[in-house]
Amino acid sequence: MEGTTRRVFRYIYRNGEPQGIHDIQRGLDLSSPSVAHYHVAKLLDAGLIKPEGDGYVADKTVFENMIKVRKTAIPLQTAFAVFLLTSAIVLLTVMRPSSTYASYVFALLVIVTALCVTTFEAFRAARAI
């Protein structure tokens, strides 16, 4: 999802209450109601919004794995990535290996691998919204 369609989705999500076609057109300063309707139809087909009352609302199941901070949705994987990054920093700075390097290297390898996967998934989830 890119461009105006993404803007329409974010507008509907951030307002939290049903938004009609004319509300979307005025709120985003779109050229006509038909432009707003076109993008709303794309979002309906994708299952990202649903009709409610006299307008449209964001489907809450899209945000199962999101953390809402004020009006911003952050992927839950971001919290995991921060935790893993902190763990890697602590492992590298505070927890020096005593006699065996094998377990230290293994722990570092596991943390860095999990950090890479989690960061990739967080970026993928962020691009979807």
What's the gist of this structure?
With 129 residues, the chain is α+β, with helices and mostly antiparallel strands.
Task: Report what the structure shows.
The protein is 63% helix and 12% strand. The chain is rod-shaped. The N and C termini lie close together (7 Å). The protein has 129 residues and is of the alpha+beta class. It is built from 5 helices and 4 strands, in the order αααββββαα. Strands 1-2 form a two-stranded antiparallel sheet. The protein has 2 domains: 3-62, Arc Repressor Mutant, subunit A, CATH 1.10.10.10; 65-128. A hairpin with a 2-residue loop joins strand 1 (49-52) and strand 2.
Shape: rod-shaped
* Residues in β-strands, percent: 5-15%
Largest sheet: 2 strands, antiparallel
The tally of domains stands at 2
Helix content: 55-70%
Q: Distance N terminus to C terminus?
A: 7 Å
Tell me the layout of helices and strands.
Blueprint: H1 3-15, H2 21-28, H3 33-46, E1 49-52, E2 55-58, E3 66-69, E4 72-75, H4 76-93, H5 101-128
Antiparallel strand pairs: 1-2, 3-4
Search tags:
Arc Repressor Mutant, subunit A; two-stranded antiparallel sheet; single chain; alpha+beta; 129 residues
